[in-house]
């Protein structure tokens, strides 16, 4: 079960630069799924319908993952925009990210090498200043314990970054918790130690 944490965009972010009289606007956004990536790309295209090009790329997964990626040169010479943008994303250390580079042509041809450098640089510039947050894959647990273990359990929660979702009091006490997948094994062991094995634990929902 993959439990790795990684950085994702915190929100939509835009940077701008001018190269050889062409104006480049680079917009980056969260893209946890292919559908959300494509919806974001469509919104930017609608925002800049008069642009010469709206080239794009996305990685809808962990940093460096090529399982769900996409790219488009949007009319630029083949291989000069989408592929360099995707390469920059794959090596950028941020996951679940989509980027659109909007170009307004300024009259000076950049050539294939110049275009590759320009589109690569645009994505790198956006990533350098991109606000990020940490994505923490989590599990939802259902736990049933005796009343004598309640205080001990509550004291354990912060150390394991566990969040109490719900509680139910009957003959025993039932809790639902969210905690990082990476903490699951250690939490399970600590809970068995605390209760001397008198506990029911069920993983309801591992969330990658």
Automatic annotation (TrEMBL):
Matches recorded under PROSITE patterns: UPF0029
One Pfam family named in its UniProt record: Impact_N
Residue ranges occupied by any UPF0029 domain in the UniProt entry: 143-197
Residue ranges of domain Impact N-terminal in the record: 20-127
SUPFAM superfamilies assigned: EF-G C-terminal domain-like, Ribosomal protein S5 domain 2-like
A single GO BP: regulation of translational initiation
InterPro entries, A to Z: EFG_III/V, Impact, Impact_N, Impact_N_sf, Impact_YigZ-like, Ribosomal_Su5_D2-typ_SF, UPF0029_Impact_C, UPF0029_Impact_CS
Similarity annotation: Belongs to the IMPACT family.
Protein name: YigZ family protein
């Amino acid at each position: 079960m993959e439990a790795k944490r990684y950085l994702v965009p915190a929100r939509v972010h835009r940077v701008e630069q001018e190269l050889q009289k062409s104006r480049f606007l680079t917009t980056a956004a969260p893209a946890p799924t292919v559908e959300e990536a494509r919806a974001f790309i469509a919104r930017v295209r609608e925002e800049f319908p008069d642009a010469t090009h709206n080239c794009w790329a996305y990685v809808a997964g962990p940093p460096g993952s090529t399982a769900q990626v996409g790219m488009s040169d949007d009319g630029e010479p083949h291989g000069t925009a989408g592929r360099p943008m995707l390469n920059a994303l794959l090596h950028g250390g941020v996951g679940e990210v989509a980027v659109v580079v909007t170009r307004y042509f300024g009259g000076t041809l950049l050539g294939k090498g110049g275009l590759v450098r320009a589109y690569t640089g645009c994505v790198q510039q956006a990533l350098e200043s991109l606000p990020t947050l940490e994505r923490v894959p989590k599990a939802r647990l259902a736990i049933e314990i005796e009343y004598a273990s309640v205080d001990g359990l509550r004291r354990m929660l912060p150390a394991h970054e566990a969040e109490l979702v719900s509680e139910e009091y009957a003959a025993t006490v039932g809790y639902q918790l969210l905690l990082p997948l990476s903490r699951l094994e250690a939490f399970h062991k600590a809970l068995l130690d605390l209760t001397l094995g008198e506990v029911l634990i069920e993983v309801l929902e591992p969330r990658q």
